[in-house]
Design a protein that fits this description.
The chain has 572 residues and is α+β, with helices and mostly antiparallel strands. It is built from 18 helices and 20 strands. The strands form five sheets. The chain has an eight-stranded mixed β-sheet with strand order 6-7-5-8-10-9-11-12, sandwiched between helices. The protein has a six-stranded mixed β-sheet with strand order 17-16-13-20-18-19, sandwiched between helices. Strands 1-2 form a two-stranded antiparallel sheet.
């Protein structure tokens, strides 16, 4: 932490700023969550800002570690490298509407501070230009900017910084302090600009988070914590000063019908994903997503984007990303029938729902299916299984007192168990159902009843999953020994309950052989999940085979998207 004022903004300042801002957001996270009523009262703005900045800080630390490992002669890496890392880390780790906007704010700063003609370190005017670009680029990234939000606070900060930066001999510390004070003034006025804030008696949560980040910038460049009270930075509220740790004007009231925030008729799902795509494809994607829902924010550039939108059709939002490029790290959150986003919820903002389901799914199509069934879906792409930390964050996003966790993969059982143990320490009751395939998870979700006692619900879901035999049809990547003999690269493999049972040359014929083997033991329902590589007629052939050879057996077909297996089969 700097102990003396810094005239310039350099790589060391970037590192210190990230560390201080992360620490400040960590202390203020719960208070910011508690005033989150716009655009959706889901109580996670502080958490999303923290996680986004955590990713940025981690990326900056990696740059410093690489510099030290390389034996660099300078005391630290180049400012441009540190700023780019900060922006990239925020982009790939952005969470929620607020985190996505913060990522674009940092990217806007990087566009100035890491440009080809940028100096080795920024002075006061340079920092002012960076804050201006940050505010402008964030506003451009939002499909329909709304005043009284973090965008208003960012613009006010940039305006105030520009006024000071235009004067002679103003250093970075003075510019940062002006930006902070301008942001504070704008934050205090947010309830006057947005009715949903005024009625709840709070300031904008995203704007408050930005004020916290700017306070850390002031401390980085001056060595002083702005307007400290008991060691904490004061943040203005709509009715006088509000210190972190206090609610703004009491407990926020639930939003009423007619508010422009969380209310009846708003979309049911939050969809977020990283996207590798060209600029032209992203322009088309913006138009399509804007027609599907609201709270659309698309940030990034140079082929990598972070997409955030609230929609009723989560599958369509993901499919739009697939058409535009390669979406990954897909997160779909159902706002829930019992949360403040739902009609007639009537519960205090920030209160947990009673029960939620968190599931790992192997493809975009299934992610949408699970989300529509009310689950929080965590996408596991081939070769990219989620870490326990991702599952922990998914459980936290579900914001429930009780959580049913479906790993849907035998190899993820220990990862899921570690995540469950961690969140149990946070006071969440978690039941881990050892599902080994997404089709077992579908069976478990089919009997899930949130109104039932937790233990009874878990038993019913476990029984349904256990009664579902599962199989997959895939293509061998290399020669290897299997339970059914030696397979060669390119052979079609049919795995039943995790073991290779059939080796064939034709995918449809192999799938038929696997289905016959499974139905030989009986069954009432066949579930088929088609991957992108499945032949067009395979579902029709399998459905016809069931109709002709197995009386009283029903078939249901889903499209899983780019999942690892060409075909998943469930029999229950």
């Amino acid at each position: 932490m700097p102990q003396v004022p810094q005239t310039f903004f350099d790589a060391l300042a970037v590192r210190a700023w990230c560390g201080l801002a992360l620490d400040s957001l960590g202390r203020a996270r719960e208070e910011i969550d508690a005033i989150n009523v716009y655009p959706v009262a889901d109580g996670d703005t502080g958490t999303n800002l923290y996680l986004t900045l955590e990713s940025a800080a981690t990326a900056v630390e990696a740059v410093f570690a690489g510099h030290e490992a390389g034996g660099g002669a300078e005391p630290g890496p180049a400012m441009a490298d540190a700023v780019r890392a900060m922006a990239h880390g925020a982009l790939i780790g952005a969470r929620g509407n607020s985190g996505t906007i913060l990522a674009q704010l940092l990217r806007g700063m990087a566009q100035v501070l890491a440009s080809d003609d940028a100096p080795a370190h920024a002075d006061g005017p340079g920092l002012g230009r960076a804050l201006r670009q940050a505010a402008d680029s964030a506003r451009q990234a939002v499909a329909h900017p709304v005043e009284g939000t973090v965008l208003t606070v960012a613009s006010a900060a940039a305006d105030a910084a520009a006024t000071v930066a235009g004067a002679a001999d103003r250093d970075c510390g003075e510019v940062a302090r002006a930006a902070y004070e301008g942001a504070c003034a704008a934050l205090a006025e947010t309830p006057d600009r947005l009715d949903v804030l005024r009625r709840a008696g709070v300031v904008d949560a995203g704007g408050r988070g930005l004020v916290t980040v700017l306070a850390a910038l002031v401390e980085t460049l001056t060595g002083e914590t702005p307007r400290t009270t008991a060691g904490r930075a004061a943040v203005p509220g709509p009715y006088g000063r509000v210190e972190p740790g206090e609610a703004a004007h009491g407990t926020p009231a639930p939003c009423e019908d007619g508010d422009t925030g969380a209310q009846a008729g708003n979309p049911a799902f939050e969809v977020i994903y990283l996207l590798e795509a060209e600029d032209a494809a992203v322009a088309r994607l913006r138009k399509r997503l804007d027609a599907l829902g609201d709270s659309l924010v698309v940030v990034g550039g140079d082929g990598l984007w972070n997409v955030h939108v609230h929609v009723d059709d989560a599958g369509a939002a993901v499919e739009a990303g697939v058409e535009a490029g390669r979406p990954y790290r897909i997160r779909i959150t159902h706002f829930g029938a019992g949360d403040a986003h739902a009609p007639g919820a009537g519960r205090t903002r920030g209160e947990r729902v009673q029960r939620a389901v968190v599931a790992v799914v192997p493809g975009e199509g299934l992610a949408g299916l699970y989300a529509e069934a009310g689950a929080t879906a965590v996408l596991a792409r081939p070769g990219e299984p989620p870490a326990s930390g991702e599952l922990v964050q998914a459980v936290r996003r579900a914001h429930a007192r009780e959580v049913v966790l479906l790993p849907n993969d035998a190899d993820l059982r220990h990862t899921a168990a570690a995540a469950a143990e961690q969140v149990r320490g946070e006071g969440v009751r978690v039941a881990l159902i050892p599902t080994r395939s997404a089709v077992q998870g579908i069976a478990a979700l089919a009997v899930h009843e949130p109104e039932r006692r937790f233990d009874e619900d878990v038993v019913a879901m476990t029984s349904a999953a256990g009664a579902t035999r599962y199989a997959e049809v895939t293509v061998a990547e290399r020669q290897s020994w299997t339970m059914a003999g030696i397979c060669q690269a390119g052979d079609v493999l049919g795995l039943v309950d995790g073991d290779v049972a059939v080796i064939g040359q034709d995918l449809t014929a192999t799938a038929e052989a696997v289905l016959d083997r499974m139905l030989a033991a009986g069954g009432e329902l066949v579930t088929l999940v088609l991957g992108d590589g499945a032949p067009e007629l395979v579902a029709e052939r399998l459905e016809a085979r069931v109709r002709e050879g197995y009386l009283a057996v029903d078939t249901v077909v889903y499209h899983g998207g780019r999942q690892g297996a060409v075909l998943l089969i469930g029999v229950e």
